[in-house]
Amino acid sequence: KLGTLSPQTKHISKEEEEKCTLGILERLDAGEVVVGDGGFLLTLEKRGYVKAGLWTPEAVVEHPNAVRQLHMEFLRAGSNVMQTFTFSANEDNMESQYFEYAEEAVWAVEVLKESGKPVAATMCIGPEGDMHGVTPGECAVKLVKAGASIIGVNCRFGPWTSLKTMRLMKEGLQAAGLKAHLMVQSLVFHMPDCGKGGFVDLPEYPFALEPRVATRWDIQKYAREAYNLGIRYIGGCCGFEPYHIRAIAEELAPERGFLPPASEKHGSWGSGLNMHTKPWIRARARREYWENLLPASGRPFCPSLSKPDV
Amino acid sequence: KLGTLSPQTKHISKEEEEKCTLGILERLDAGEVVVGDGGFLLTLEKRGYVKAGLWTPEAVVEHPNAVRQLHMEFLRAGSNVMQTFTFSANEDNMESQYFEYAEEAVWAVEVLKESGKPVAATMCIGPEGDMHGVTPGECAVKLVKAGASIIGVNCRFGPWTSLKTMRLMKEGLQAAGLKAHLMVQSLVFHMPDCGKGGFVDLPEYPFALEPRVATRWDIQKYAREAYNLGIRYIGGCCGFEPYHIRAIAEELAPERGFLPPASEKHGSWGSGLNMHTKPWIRARARREYWENLLPASGRPFCPSLSKPDV
Amino acid sequence: KLGTLSPQTKHISKEEEEKCTLGILERLDAGEVVVGDGGFLLTLEKRGYVKAGLWTPEAVVEHPNAVRQLHMEFLRAGSNVMQTFTFSANEDNMESQYFEYAEEAVWAVEVLKESGKPVAATMCIGPEGDMHGVTPGECAVKLVKAGASIIGVNCRFGPWTSLKTMRLMKEGLQAAGLKAHLMVQSLVFHMPDCGKGGFVDLPEYPFALEPRVATRWDIQKYAREAYNLGIRYIGGCCGFEPYHIRAIAEELAPERGFLPPASEKHGSWGSGLNMHTKPWIRARARREYWENLLPASGRPFCPSLSKPDV
Amino acid sequence: KLGTLSPQTKHISKEEEEKCTLGILERLDAGEVVVGDGGFLLTLEKRGYVKAGLWTPEAVVEHPNAVRQLHMEFLRAGSNVMQTFTFSANEDNMESQYFEYAEEAVWAVEVLKESGKPVAATMCIGPEGDMHGVTPGECAVKLVKAGASIIGVNCRFGPWTSLKTMRLMKEGLQAAGLKAHLMVQSLVFHMPDCGKGGFVDLPEYPFALEPRVATRWDIQKYAREAYNLGIRYIGGCCGFEPYHIRAIAEELAPERGFLPPASEKHGSWGSGLNMHTKPWIRARARREYWENLLPASGRPFCPSLSKPDV
């Protein structure tokens, strides 16, 4: 996805540039960390404003307050970028909208490039590659050669898988002697059992993904690992709620020099528990506790992995 | 918790009575099903407006739009009752606010009863009982004898455990030849591993409960089982989001005769998937599929149950 | 099961008494710990000599060497008692052989008592009781009043469930002011999901119980907990292999004052690994390691609990 | 491992050739399926005759009856080949004995080839390859070029991983225009979480592998899949007990035309349960039941996968 067509690709708007003294490229060039936003479709579905299966964004017109409220929450959680909620993820449209061939993405980057604005292109690609046989490394090289300044992945895969793809993209660029800013917006779900097609092929999609939702601590690890890989545009896609975005902003607060507004309502690493009257709950008010906790599913009759339908 | 002191007990307000032609007791007496609302504290914590550990409701003043938005969502999802968001769940306050002895609840019911309004009393009690040795059955009898018209449980335990307690309360009333309307507002989390103290004693509380969140289908089963038990006030507590409340309203639509507004964005039993271009995703557009699915956690390195800290 | 009829009840034979200077009662009265043997049927089934479903002991005649070899292994592992392998667990016979009513067991104890030998009676009973409404405590009292010197449980339930029943039996005796020696021979399988009917009602019985088999370290904990409960005859039933019996004998070696012969081939608590060339395997040569290890099933597509068929 | 040095490589002995009218190559050339034997070290460790960590075969001298008994059981279960139990798996020896470079295996094959007997060479190699960078395909080609008539894998990996390696070996041979008989002897453990080093690097090795043991039905699938891959020498390594070998022989009975002796004590696909008095147990006496059962671990506090130590 590219440009103004979709939330997955960011063609930075005039207004947005004016609001900030600096454009996104200048920020990234200056070494800043940019925090992306989270997922609109799945979150608004749970709030009652988007229909699963259809995934169309008419809520913008029908319930603008509800959409505005979610924008406010992401902003408050630390997002630097507010994507316009205009992406139609209609499953029929998916086929024609989404790029099926890497070449299509390349053409789109070339067209957008003519506008004179920086072009960011993120692909729905996994570590094993896709799009009629293109590897992540090859894909990265093609996009940068076409003129993209920022490249990366979004949607379809979970945090660790997305980072694995990013590592391959980065290595592909390095091997080709190319440079670009890196960007990642993974899904919020733990999905080591995903196939090439990503989360839609898992039997739990889209109505039973709850047990796979990452905790805030998982997302802090994801943000740190992304940062260590050299990625400087770090956000989320489907399933990322405001508190997940806040977790990115909190993890990278030392690098960025500030906490997001929503952190006034969040003690770092559970420190809000340190006044609890029960000593065993107070004992949870520390980083090591949450970093090492292996959270139970509470579902002993369920498996821990599923087989994708294809 | 009782009366105006907290969201856990409903002392129906003047305004609310005037809005409806009928009061809550008249409705329940007439055999109506009343759908409660969901959890404010945990949901607003994830949205960035409530601080975990402190759990205080200053968001009402600081961010009224955010609170109003969540009220709107629950209303749209089918809630008949909007609780005022004034409960201070401050962990220090908990000790003094919460009833430690069943007798305290009894006194509160007696005081509220004098106001001439119907009194609903829900207790945080599990199947094994609590409160210095009172069983669910004994507790139910005490509350009804004190004058409560509606009794039940809320918070602390998951859906199946809460229903188990309700069954014992009902049996206690029957054995004593008493009658009352029944009410249940369980947590959204799967917690068969809970001890007497409920969810706060599980190691995942409050920041790693994600894998335990019930799906909408789990909540439909909960609503049906509650209905079959004779419970007619059915809602949720911590962790219940608008789509969980919608699941209650959809499951009981045949009995109530109507769907909630938010169902315009929800195909019943996944029917919204029946136009999908991929046949294996279309195949998920049916009730049997979601009723029988055992959702994976995506976390093979985690256990399925935890040991409570006490 | 009682007396010479079955391996579950021990009527000590003439020969056995002569072999030892002391009879079993004298030993137990003197405070000795008696280590029982393990399971013959399931072990010989895996070796190819017993037919599952039929569970008949014709191997004694058809393949005496195979049976003798298993006896040798249990003896070498530390068993003090060698049960005759004459129990016909034929599923048809089960109905008529097994005691359906506690009274039957009482009559059998009374008859055997007349022989003048010590009578040991173990019942297939769980913590919730069975046998037309008898609790473990009541059952214990009946057997001791009938003349049994040693009482306890065997088969049907796993280690922790069996010990829970034993605790109830012990409390029943204490409440009645009675005394008896206690005996436990649990199954080797982890079965917290068992119903009243025990392991035969689990869907995995009898051909897919492998993932439930206890490790040697689990059995050491079982032996210690049994000892702490005051049980002095400690053995195993179906699924207990020679190394499980050795684990009992090793755990209780400090109390008994000696190790079994098979310990010449077993370093206590994994110490046999301390010469390994790989440092991370050497690091496993210690008690804390094995005591705290949570062993993975290697089966991420399987649940951790099952629902019993009844 | 090669030749007479170890059980992992079979240099067929004079006596063995005389016993059979046909040598192993003649049999395989004629299209016969050869059933291998199972694991001696781990099985005899559980019986009390081998010391874990040391893994030396002095039991042959110290307890010949115990070793002979296990040989008898494998024979009865259907093994066509009885390996001499002379392999010293002493962990110190491992380093010098095991081939570190594929070239060493090649030299050994060349030396054994001079004896004029057929040489079978099995390697401890996983799908990702090993031995200083040799892939399974390259390894297969080297061994066949050196003169091996039978090649394959044994030990270190579980059934599905071993078959994956075999597929790569087969493809390597096909690409090089070479032919050889294929042989597989996997471990009995489910280990999708294995790293390159195989099972010794899993935290459960060697004393907590119980939950990973394959059922007889798992092994039937393994045997069928091996057969379908074109493998005609199918056996097992560590952890394979007689009933696992019987499962291979039963699965391939239609192809071989006969059942092993131990099948007189085994109803195929659970048919031995069809006379059970409880209808829900009788209902398990069929193939679909056992093929589709997902066996629970009975350990809800344990994970389903582990992280290898390296």
TrEMBL record, chains A, B, C, D:
Binds 1 zinc ion per subunit. GO terms for molecular function: S-methyltransferase activity; zinc ion binding. One of its GO terms (biological process) is methionine biosynthetic process. The keyword Metal-binding applies. Zn(2+) binds at C155, C237, C238. Pathway: Amino-acid biosynthesis; L-methionine biosynthesis via de novo pathway; L-methionine from L-homocysteine (BhmT route): step 1/1. Keywords: Metal-binding, Methyltransferase, Transferase, Zinc. It comes from the Eukaryota. Residues 1-252 form the Hcy-binding domain. The keyword NAD does not apply. Its cofactor is Zn(2+). Involved in the regulation of homocysteine metabolism. Homotetramer. This is Betaine--homocysteine S-methyltransferase 2. It comes from Sus scrofa (Pig). The lineage of its organism: Eukaryota, Metazoa, Chordata, Craniata, Vertebrata.
